[in-house]
Hints:
two-stranded antiparallel sheet, single chain, 14-stranded antiparallel β-barrel, Porin, mainly beta
Amino acid sequence: MKLLVKLLILGLLTCQLFAVGEAGGIFLLIAPGARAPGMGEAQVAKADDAYASYYNPAGLAYLPGKGISLMHTKWLPNLADDIYYTFATGYTTIEDMGTFGAHFTFLNLGTQVETDELGRELGTFRSFMWALTGNYSTLLSEHSSIGISAKLFHQKLTDKAVANERGKGQSTDFAFDLGYMLRRDRYSIGAMIQNIGPKITFIDDDQSDPAPTNMKLGVDVTVFDDGFNRINLLADANKLLVAAYPAMDWDDDGIIGGYDKDGNGSDGGKYNRDGDIEQAHTDSWWKALVTAWLDDWYLGGDLDKDANDIIGGYVFRDCGEDGLCPGDAGYIGPDENGTEGDGMTIIDNAGTIPDEYPELFYEPNDSKAKYNEFAEIEKGSESERKFSTEFKEMVYNFGIEYWYQSYFALRAGYIYDQEGKITNPTFGAGVHFDRYGFDFGYTAGEQGHPRANTMFFSINIDI
């Protein structure tokens, strides 16, 4: 059952904007509608229809009257044939009060085979996720607005836990969104932090994951408008505000943990003597709003890449021309003057030599012992982390939209996610008449990519 859950989560991670796997509830990051997916999902500074309820609730303040929208798509057609995504949204503007909106999200993960901890099949079950969100938005001035959202979401991955695990593989949680928009005649700027909330627990607290708190910044510029033809360029940048740390040596003592929270020695303790957590962990959401910009380069120490709770310990052996190295039976070491061949014969290995990397020698007290048993540098790996990593983990969305009056639209865009290996072009079109609008979006990509060949359809109705 654990493997099945991991596969389900992995399948979702390969299709989301953020493929780093640091957060739970990532279905909340699926871009709804057909308009935004048609232009690279860049939308936080546009948000001028009912889908503003998701992309930036601040955009609802500029919408008159009432409106509803509905979309449905077969999600990840290259990954599975029974996954689908449905999204419904609506809003109403009340004079002198502001605009109220809401949306409902449903992701069906299909039928799964239930197994026990030994891999024996026990039957089948269905997995799904849903979220219900309410919004409120109001103008701060003629050109600026704010919006807030509150959401309740439920995730059902399994029917029950395995063996001695607590919980049932299900979770019900809540989160909030905050949005801002500055709108002028030729451009608009949008900012939003979505999914601000506590950690998500399926089985027990030790396995909880942070909510997918995400910051969006974007701009929308009208580059041409002659009254009949209009062209807009859009760009968004997304930063996952989740601070996640692998096992690291924070106090530079060469070991991971070994103490309790009060600084007392403890076998299996995850703290160091200073009370810092050295085992893999994540920060609380309120702390991660800041530390998410620091966790990949500034905070922490040397990495425990082989997960043995020891930093380094191995050196490369200085082997002679005869192929024998220090620690090998029969090796003739140098004398006190460094002359080869006049020293003592070492009969037995003095330390551990890995089978896979015989050129390594275990010498934990050697200052040069910076490698682990897989020849990876651990001691001093703190210096490998750079601030540029924070930007590499961000997701960038670019889009262009052409309108002929308000009747016909063509769209194109690009999604660039270096960390998640998602570099997909997108295309779309829209037809709007009277109170009705129909939009189509398409995500292209390499053959076999989970995001490729995904089609989106949506209908919009102004009431």
